[in-house]
Amino acid sequence: MTTDVHAHLWSEEYLELLARLGRPDLDAHRGLSAGASVEELRGRFKQMDSAGIDRQILSVTPLAPHFQDLNSAVEAARFSNQEYAELVERHPDRFAAFASLPLPHVEEALIELDHALDELGMIGVAVTTDILGASLSDPGFEPIFAALNERKSVLYVHPAGMDAHSQLIRGRSMRWSAGAPIEDTIAVVDLLLSGFPSRYPELRIIASHLGGGLPMILQRLDRQQPWESPQTPEPPSTAAHRLWFDTVAHGDRDVLELAARKFGVGRLLLGTDFPYQSGSAFLEASGFIRDSFNTVQAQQILSGNAARIFSQG
């Protein structure tokens, strides 16, 4: 089963809920045919069939239900998880879903985690690269990752779309072109240097967009780590081989092949970034994998690796 681990769906009802709760910058996510209407789903499935993709694992990121207000976070998380669960129930051969958590509220997030994974049948959790400005390695979030580790579950990490909280990015028309991969890079490097992969060895972490700039700086990290981050328990390159990475690279075969050399083919998972890559770009998202590797390697990325990590829990 060819599985796309990086795909988004936002119903109009969910977008309206976020608007009511005060979420800004929703216009960029509207009008993309990424909703739950019959017409939009029919168009999505047609594109999936054309690309040879059997199943998508849905995530609401970057529109995650992360609110400082507890009630807002809980309401949005419960709504999105229930909606996704119903979609998966109606289309079990086309969809699976990552759960959302009402962060930064840890106690309520643990309650929702149990509900989403045990009662709704979701196959992991999706979070953004930071939680309202707090890093994923913040000790306050440790109970969540410990619970996921105990379950041998999956954590999917996607950019927050918050300009990496940098004034040098904000307002300069580069939030997604440059800001998102910077967010990926910062988040993944922080996980590596904080010892996350060895501390939670049963937690299967998927990083978006090939880890941002990680393939290009992995050797630099190894050389700098002994003096800059001496508390790190293992070389960053060793820790990186404990993670998985989706293949969203906007058709750049050189970057894809570099990631395969750095991480290994066994650590790559098909990602399309639907709906931001649709039409010909959507076809290319799987096609450039088939064009870059031999048949066995391509099938490993398109289906084999996902089957392995989502069946281990």
UniProtKB/TrEMBL annotation:
InterPro entries: ACMSD, Amidohydro-rel, Metal_Hydrolase. GO terms for cellular component: cytoplasm. The keyword Hydrolase applies. Pfam families: Amidohydro_2 (PF04909). GO terms for biological process: secondary metabolic process. One of its GO terms (molecular function) is carboxy-lyase activity. Residues 4-310 form the Amidohydrolase-related domain. Gene3D superfamilies: Metal-dependent hydrolases. It comes from the Bacteria. Keywords: Hydrolase, Lyase. This is Amidohydrolase.
